[in-house]
Amino acid sequence: MNKENLIKKTYEELRKISSKKKIEGRSKMNKNELVKAILKNKKNNKKSGGTQINNNPSTHNMKSDNNRYKKLLFLLKRYDKEGKIEDLQEMMKLLPPLHTHVLPPLHTHGINYNNLKNKKSFSNLYSQLPPELKYHVVSYVPIEIYHIKIKNNEEISNLINSFKRKKREGRTILVKELRIEGFNINFQLLEELFTLITIKRLDWKNLSSFKVGFLPSSLEELSSRSLMQRLEVGTLPPSLKELSLFNFYLNLNIGVLPSSLEYLHLGEFNRPLNIGVLPSSLKKLSLYNFNQPLSIGVLPSSLEDLYLYNFNQPLSIGVLPPSLEKLSMSNYNKFLGGGILPSSLKKLTISKKLYSVFYLFKLKKFNYPNIEFNLKN
Fold first, then answer.
1. How remote is the C-alpha of 287 from its chain's centroid?
2. What's the average model confidence in pLDDT over 96-111?
């Protein structure tokens, strides 16, 4: 095997060893042989058209190489087991310099950039590499994470130009939160911005209306203080988990709320709720101004937390789902006889001003002894 092929072979073996997912019979070289091969094939410091190997024993410090060998072997074993980014950095310092045009990619499988504890250190290391070497050293796609606030269309245009450059560099743009606070926002510019990023949370104070398909499919949280359009089936993305509409007051039809929804807050909403409107995935429901009768089956069986601030309609047995753990009814003053509150309930918040002391004592002592009562003024 000639020396250039040996270099390729050693780097290919290092790629396999660096993988956290071990493959049976993956390597013909054991780790000791691999490290020796890497250290044996040191390149001459003088760069020429091809790869030159320094075989002059007089210039070869055996003691130094032996120490490097031991350290590299230790790092390889630990990185193979734990995948620590600090070990990867140290290995890169110990590896001999080699011409990149004869090297196959040196991948670092098992490194999840989002889960790294020391992202800054790894990013600094990556940014210092020459462009032609980046491909050979890492195989991950750098993910840049942003929290963005937008006030006007000029800021959107600047973001579009910036993110286009980053996309050409192979970057993935993750926007954990996008806050839009300005008026007269250009929807076409926003649509173009949405194509360049992966967005998780959108907080748009002045969003009053939008068309079906406008919201990005990656969206998980949506908050608006001004939405007043009637929502149609398909208007909200199927990935949505949290929805907060503070001034929304129109009817909600079956199928409008996506089946992925886990938290719903409606501020001014005070329309009747029919069975099937609230999705079966819902875990937390907050209705501030709602004061309509509730029938059995309206509240989904998945519901765990329920907040009804202005609700004051009589409740019958079976209306509250058997999964409910927390219930808050700040203005409720109706009868809460045995069986109305489910056995799963752990905490009840009501106003002590709306009930007599004797009734509250009886309710807590005899009807629901296992429930924690939170009595508000």
1. 27
2. 36
